[in-house]
Design a protein that fits this description.
By secondary structure, this protein is of the alpha+beta class. The protein has helices at about 1-20, 55-60, 110-115, 145-155; strands spanning about 20-25, 35-50, 60-75, 85-100, 105, 120-125, 130, 135-140, 165, 170-185, 185-200, 205-220, 225-240, 245-260, 265-280. The strands form 2 sheets. Strands 2, 3, 4, 5, 6, 7, 8, 10, 11, 12, 13, 14 and 15 form a 13-stranded antiparallel β-sheet that branches. A two-stranded antiparallel ribbon has the order 1-9. It is globular. Keywords: Signal.
């Protein structure tokens, strides 16, 4: 009997040790719970123009700065008999500012926020994952669909993870389809390669270094003559091992592209910064 108990304890300790030294991304909502996500985005972009001498002298270098922050609340319901967990997403806050060469660009912030707060996104989570789209939203979408889609596109690269199980020091990668909106109805489509390295597991959290880079062919709009030079982000991610919806990340990195318009060559170089934090209420 003593030998059986000893063997059982050794096996149990082995499983506990393995669980503490390994991690696998499995984001699942808890029923009847509320999660608040805060996201901040900053972009500093310089546009260098050459070609048309008169216009180049007037606009030889344009510097644009944009700050955006928004907050969402996700509320889950009771899981049904089929194993579907319904949830709703509400937008609670939106703040954005933009200035060009030091001059702030006026924005009707109150009107945008008022419309945004009317929107509710309905979805379900099951063994197939989370299913929702802008077509399932309720509220006045006439002026808000593009804004919603832009936000979701910006968030998407931070919501797709490698499927492999990590041990401390392991690196795994995932390919993420990504759209970058330029203007109404015009997007750049690309693949982002995310490389995740598990640094440590401590205090109920998993700590990762992350690098994201554009890879493969980049699909450009036919009406624009653009050469995409670089898109890269480096950052960190911290995940709660007991509820992975509780997490925090920071990313920063450059993007550069060259566009030919009306005999002018425009070089756009930007520095992008993202911060996300999700907590359970």
């Amino acid at each position: 009997m003593k030998q059986i108990i000893t063997t059982f304890l050794m096996v149990s300790c082995s499983f506990v040790g393995f669980a503490q030294e390994t991690f696998q991304f499995k984001l699942k909502y808890h029923p009847e719970s509320s999660y608040q996500m805060d996201m901040d985005m900053q972009m500093n972009m310089q546009m260098q123009m050459a070609g048309d001498e008169k216009l180049s002298n007037e606009l030889s270098q344009v510097e644009t700065k944009m700050d955006m922050s928004f907050q969402t609340l996700t509320v889950t319901k009771e899981m049904d008999k089929e194993g579907d967990l319904p949830f709703e997403i509400f937008y609670k806050k939106l703040d954005s500012k933009m200035n060009v060469n030091g001059q702030e660009i006026p924005m009707d912030q109150d009107a945008i926020t008022k419309e945004l707060l009317k929107i509710k996104i309905n979805g379900i989570e099951n063994e197939k994952g989370r299913q929702y789209s802008s077509d399932e939203m309720t509220g006045d979408l006439s002026n808000m669909k593009d804004l919603y889609d832009n936000m979701m596109n910006s968030m998407s690269m931070f919501m797709i993870f490698p499927k492999e199980t990590f041990k401390i020091g392991d690196m795994h990668e995932v390919i993420i389809p990504f759209k970058m909106p330029l203007q109404q109805g015009v997007d750049i489509e690309m693949n982002i390669k995310g490389v995740y390295k598990l640094l440590k597991i401590a205090d109920g959290k998993a700590y990762f270094d992350v690098e994201m880079t554009s890879v493969g062919n980049i699909k450009m709009p036919s009406q624009l003559n653009i050469n995409f030079d670089e898109y890269k982000l480096n950052g960190s991610l911290t995940m709660n091992v007991f509820d992975q919806n509780i997490n925090e990340s920071t990313f920063s990195g450059p993007m550069s592209m060259t566009m030919d318009v009306n005999n002018m060559k425009i070089k756009m170089i930007s520095q992008n910064n993202y911060r996300t934090k999700t907590s359970k209420l």
